[in-house]
Amino acid sequence: MTLTQSSGGAQGGANTKSGRVSLPDLSAIDDELERSESAQHRHNVRRNIGFALAAVFAASVLVSSYVLPTFRIYGSSMTPTLREGDVVVGTRPGTVRRGELIAFSYNNKLLTKRVIGLPGDWIDIDSAGNVSVNGKRLSEPYLRAGAKSLGQCDITLPYQVPEDTYFVMGDRRSVSLDSRLTQVGCIPKDQVAGRLAFRVWPPQSAGPVS
């Protein structure tokens, strides 16, 4: 049997009438090699992208868990400072200061409020919603005009903040459920998940929060 190069393109196999085997021409072989190399290249690219995405995901989890925790805001108790759907990057609790925003664990949920009183502080709130700390009226420029309210309050005022806890309130005082209620109370230090620092979503509102 004689082997010959076919001029008929990429057709192969036995020619039963002539008894000859038709081989693909060189251009067909080149095309096939190019397709194989292209498929391998695409496979390698997909694999590398997959590895990169996995690495980014793992890094983001580590960062959010150990360096910069991220919190999503639910509810309206912190408007206008924070709105439902906002995503805020926080820092580890460290030293918490009066006036800062914190996220904390309560009934298996993460809530966001503002620190009003530190351990040992005496808190008083009058009927108009004006807050005093240690006998001095608290300046609250973060509140919207007319937002002050005694709200839902069943603690005995003036009230002293227990040791190792924080007295917190929402910025929308009329609806916020916070340390003014005995069922919420002051927040133990070990329940603070982070201090809120920078809003990353929505983009048009991105920036520091205070």
Describe the structure.
Helices cover 20% and strands 29% of the residues. The longest helix has 41 residues, at 26-66. The termini are far apart. Strand 8 and strand 9 (131-133) form a beta hairpin. The protein has one helix at 26-66, and strands spanning 3-5, 13-14, 21-23, 70-72, 87-91, 101-106, 109-117, 122-125, 131-133, 136-137, 159-160, 165-169, 187-188, 192-201, 207-208. The strands form 3 sheets. Strands 4, 5, 6, 7, 12, 13, 14 and 15 form an 8-stranded antiparallel beta sheet that branches. It has 210 residues and is an alpha+beta fold. The model is unreliable at 1-18 and 55-66 (pLDDT under 50). The chain has 1 helix and 15 strands; from the N terminus they run βββαββββββββββββ.
Q: SSE layout and pairings?
A:
Layout: E1 3-5, E2 13-14, E3 21-23, H1 26-66, E4 70-72, E5 87-91, E6 101-106, E7 109-117, E8 122-125, E9 131-133, E10 136-137, E11 159-160, E12 165-169, E13 187-188, E14 192-201, E15 207-208
Parallel strand pairs: 1-3
Antiparallel strand pairs: 2-3, 4-5, 5-14, 6-7, 6-14, 7-12, 8-9, 8-11, 9-10, 12-13, 14-15
